[in-house]
Amino acid sequence: MGMDGVHTVKSFEHELDHLRGMMARMCGIVENQVSQAVSAVFDLNVTAAQEAIDHDPMVDQLERDIEGLAIRLLALRSPMAGDLREIVSALKISSDLERIGDYAASIARRSKRVDLTESLSLSGLRNMGRMVQENLRRGADAMTLQDPERAQEVWEADCEVDEYYTALFRELVTYMMEDPRNIGPCIHLLFIAKNLERIGDHTTNIAERVFYAVKGENLPPVRPRGKSSAADAIDQ
């Protein structure tokens, strides 16, 4: 290989490292957004709520930057095999992270509307929030470490998140039936729970994409899910 070829390889590796660095930064910001959104709900932390909302434009810009670099690498470098899968996965993962950021901001906005703790037990929602955060953290680790086993564990854990959501849905409907004064707060909690469930879905997508990027094969086509119910009718 001539010197030009060596330079080209080094340049490609430098750009790939830059892509990985942007992905890691985007993961960190989105993880923080989710953490702040959860704090906004359970600690009534108005500052955390605003921080989760304020970070959204930064996440959107990172998605655009990652997309631009990934397309440049695909067009100009003609990457092969594992590099090709990693770059395509980065494109898709950045889209999932952007959506997670949107859901976190939505949770934060909703937390500011009403005192959600009034007369309601939030232990189920708190546990769901913790589980979604933990799965996202492990999904981010799987991406950074390119660890397919950890990715598969995150993928499998989504079933438990769905089951929490279904149980919460039933609990909140019961509260609404018991006392009409609960309807307002419960509607907010239902939307927060649905947004957490969606964050779990996108985290699972990330795990699937990491697994494919590293192994060159897909996880089973059907994602593990909890029992379906009327809860699935709740949209963002």
Automatic annotation (TrEMBL):
InterPro entries named in the record: PhoU, PhoU-like_sf, PhoU_dom
Residue ranges constituting the PhoU domain according to the UniProt record: 24-110, 125-210
Entry's localization field: Cytoplasm
Pfam families in UniProt: PhoU
Primary localisation category: cytoplasm
Keyword Transport: yes
Keywords: Cytoplasm, Phosphate transport, Transport
UniProt subunit comment: Homodimer.
Family indicated by similarity: Belongs to the PhoU family.
NCBIfam families attached to this UniProt entry: phoU_full
Role noted for this protein: Plays a role in the regulation of phosphate uptake.
Name assigned to this protein: Phosphate-specific transport system accessory protein PhoU
Organism: Candidatus Kirkpatrickella diaphorinae
Gene label: phoU
